[in-house]
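Re: that chain you flagged

S.,

Sorry for the slow reply, it's been a week of failed gels. I finally had a moment to sit down with the sequence you sent. For the record, here it is as I used it:
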Amino acid sequence: PTMVAIDFNINCEARSTEIQARENSAFMYRAMVRDPTTAPAFFGKAYRRGDSPMPGYGSIEQYPHNTIHVWSGTSTEVGGKDMGSLYAAARDPVFYPHHAELDRMWVLWKDMEGNEDIDEDEYLDAEFAFYNEDAELVRVKVRDALDTRNLGYVYEEVDVPWMVQGA
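Prediction finished late last night. Pasting the structure tokens below so you have them in one place:
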């Protein structure tokens, strides 16, 4: 039960909560406002190394997304079945609020002036299979899930201090 550093390389035990809060706010400003000036810079974009496709991290993928998985997970869990393990992360109850917050960050980023979603048809037409509330398998295209209103919800508008430089 402590404040963690969004930059996983920081020893947050050596800092006061106040200093760590300021560092985290500055880090979020860079990841959400200053650095991602294009959709690929925010979302990431795959690239090739030889014959192998490699993930290209966007500004929020490594930090804060992966950092929170690592901070929330524990290597002492039997079989690594927690937030820190890719194959089992969704079994951890923290997974869902964490990813809801990342979805909210996506909405915040898209709402900033000049930012737009990826508009490539290959991406927009990608399909994912899910079970609906009636246990029926349904396919959902990315383009149909980009606007949260189509999914039946909107995020509450609240002050976000790190959206302003120097906050």
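What I noticed first: The chain is about 35% helix and 10% strand.

Talk soon,
D.
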